[in-house]
């Protein structure tokens, strides 16, 4: 079956966002990443800046902050409202058109569809550090810290809202090591698997 929707989850520094963008170009389909922030903000009633910081990442305070974050009488926190708005936007996009969606638990949100290819991109530490130092113009020590913080927050968000483990192969159709395969080969594999 042709896969109309490609979701790409990724480790920070693995190039998953870049790979996803190139796959979308090669297939001639829409690409969604940060460009859905305004839609999520509109649906949730929160600022785009807040969504940018919180829609894919857990609070910096960790899992307990998630579980006990200021819940109102409906038992919903602001994070829950953001997740629900994000979920609605992703479901709407999947109904509307073929596309590549980066992160945002899209693999889980769309898990009941047959036309979705779920990909996880990871990489080796030296290559990820090198990429982060180059892209963000930071020292190696700062790159390691950024990587650990971002991946921990992605993992916490994913694990909390999906009841699955972030990065676990069972959750994805494909798991690709961009350090071993290179970006071009990752792109080719994803394109081939979607046809």
From TrEMBL:
Any Pfam family: Cytidylate_kin2
Entry keyword Transferase: yes
GO terms for MF: kinase activity
UniProt cross-references to Gene3D superfamilies, sorted A to Z: P-loop containing nucleotide triphosphate hydrolases
Keywords: Kinase, Transferase
Keyword Transferase: yes
Entry superkingdom: Bacteria
Protein name (Swiss-Prot/TrEMBL): Cytidylate kinase
């Amino acid at each position: 079956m042709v896969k109309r929707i490609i979701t790409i989850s990724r480790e920070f520094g693995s190039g998953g966002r870049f790979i996803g963008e190139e796959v979308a170009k090669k297939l001639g389909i829409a690409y969604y990443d940060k460009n859905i922030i305004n839609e999520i903000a509109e649906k949730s009633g929160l600022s785009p800046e807040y969504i940018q910081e919180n829609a894919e990442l857990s609070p910096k305070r960790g899992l307990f902050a998630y579980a006990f974050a200021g819940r109102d009488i409906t038992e919903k926190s602001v994070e829950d409202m953001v997740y629900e708005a994000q979920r609605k936007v992703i479901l709407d996009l999947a109904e509307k058109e073929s596309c590549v969606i980066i992160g945002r638990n899209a693999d889980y949100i769309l898990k009941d569809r047959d036309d979705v290819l779920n990909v996880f991109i990871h990489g080796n530490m030296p290559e990820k550090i090198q990429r982060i130092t180059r892209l963000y113009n930071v020292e190696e020590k700062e790159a390691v810290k950024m990587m650990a913080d971002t991946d921990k927050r992605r993992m916490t968000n994913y694990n909390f809202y999906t009841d699955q483990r972030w990065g676990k192969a069972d959750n994805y159709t494909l798991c690709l090591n961009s350090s071993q395969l290179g970006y071009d080969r990752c792109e080719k594999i994803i394109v081939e698997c979607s046809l």
